[in-house]
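Field reference: "sequence" (input) and "structure" (output). Example, Transposase:
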Amino acid sequence: MTDDASARYKRHRFPAEIIAHAVWLYYRFPLSLRDIEDLLAERGIAVSFQTVSDWTTKFGLKFAHQLKRRSIGNFADKWHLDEMVVSIKGKKYWLWRAVDANGYVLDALLQSRRNKGAALRLMRKLLKSQVVAPRVMVTDKLRSYSAAKREIMLGIEHRSHKGLNNLAENSHLPVRRRERRMMRFKSAGQCQRFVSTHGQIANLFQLHRKHLNAADHRQLRALASATWREIALPIQA
């Protein structure tokens, strides 16, 4: 790493490689902060789980934003939208999510409502971040989607059937696993930060292994790792 890139981490006691690796471990695998503390300690790196938490909060979204900018225009034109309930401190929220036809996460938005207004906010966020509109939108039978689509996506084909939307429903599973590992999200802000970061990093390392032979899988995994290093190491702290 160049001296200039190293200088961007000058306020941190640990080098960029260790910080980026800790953030990668947290969002790439279903590990707790204490798990990561132990893994780093095994390598002779004495860092507390509170410091790892600070790193994931400070750097995670920055990495995710860069990955998201790189992915614009590379997703399929068929979008699957769905929502799942999240309980935070006894209050019910709805996590709205959109994935493309290949299972890549387009965006996720935590909201307190499950109505037309919430569906509109998700669609506007998607159109702004993806730049182009989809060819097809697939949802379950929640009528809020149809009402919102009539306002901003009139020319888009809409398929409303629960059985067609397994991609979006399955995309909730990794977040459910992490929610259990964290013993629930502590606040709405924490949940939104986590899903916004987790989805983009998961996209980078989603290689559809069952469709690849071993050599192709290793090559794509190496490319994903190279992209991660390019994104993470030179970032401005």
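The chain has two domains: 3-71+207-232, 78-204.
Residues 1-5 have pLDDT under 50 and may be disordered.
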